[in-house]
Specification:
heterodimer, A: 113 residues, mainly beta, 7-stranded mixed beta sheet, 4-stranded antiparallel beta sheet, 11 strands, globular, B: 112 residues, 6-stranded mixed beta sheet, 5-stranded antiparallel beta sheet, 62% strand
């Protein structure tokens, strides 16, 4: 149990579907992150929220849309994805945005047909 | 261009051996370097290093940072099969925003 819970664990969707990934942290942290992890590539930071405000969007295509209703919950809304978007999507949280280790969830394995 | 390079990319050793994993970086306005262990799922935090020459230790794992030569090493002594994992290095720095960039990882396999 990492304190960061992601659902679903696995998701298979077609390119025209709309789905959402959910992340919840029980650690009292103020910053939350979405990462994409593809095989044999470094983790790619997608979005950062600090105190519910989005602070970074690292050139992520608009077919990925984040939402952070409060400091404990983070969503990633998906629509019209491409096959190259198949990857492990990891959520993380930290107490503060800087100089703090991030705690990760187990990820959602996403496959785009 | 800011970057983090880990070496080797993969390593196979026998149980009981000692291993040294490397992480070198080129960033401006360095703040910290972090090590994580990733088995099948969530990366788990190992160490955060901010000062040169101060070893951090946790059981059989230890790590040290050299801010002059811009690298860090992660040592694992008396390796066990449970140490098999991908070890990730990340560097926090600041440009217009605070940034964290990751290396591609070192895949470590411990043979019984």
């Amino acid at each position: 149990e990492t304190g960061v819970t992601q659902t679903p664990r696995h998701l298979v969707m077609g390119m025209t579907n709309k789905k959402s990934l959910k992340c919840e942290q029980h650690l009292g942290h103020n910053a939350m992150y979405w990462y994409k992890q593809s095989a044999k590539k470094p983790l790619e930071l997608m979005f950062v929220y600090n105190f519910k405000e989005q602070t970074e969007n690292n050139s992520v295509p608009s077919r990925f849309s984040p939402e952070c209703p409060n400091s404990s919950h983070l969503f990633l809304h998906l629509h019209t994805l491409q096959p190259e978007d198949s990857a492990l999507y990891l959520c993380a949280s930290s107490y503060d945005r800087v100089n703090q280790p991030q705690h990760f969830g187990d990820g959602t394995r996403l496959s785009i047909l | 261009e800011d970057k983090v390079v880990q070496s080797p990319l993969s390593l196979v050793v026998h149980e009981g051996d000692t291993v040294t994993l490397n992480c070198s970086y080129e960033v401006t306005n360095f703040r910290s370097l972090l090590w994580y262990k990733q088995e099948k799922k969530a990366p788990t935090f190992l160490f955060m290093l901010t000062s040169s020459g101060i070893e951090k230790k946790s059981g059989r794992l230890s790590s040290i940072l050299d801010k002059k030569e811009l690298f860090s090493i992660l040592n694992i002594t008396a390796t066990q099969t449970g140490d098999s994992a991908v070890y990730l290095c990340a560097v926090e720095f600041r440009d217009s925003n605070y940034q964290l960039i990751w290396g591609a990882g070192t895949k470590l396999i411990i043979k019984p």
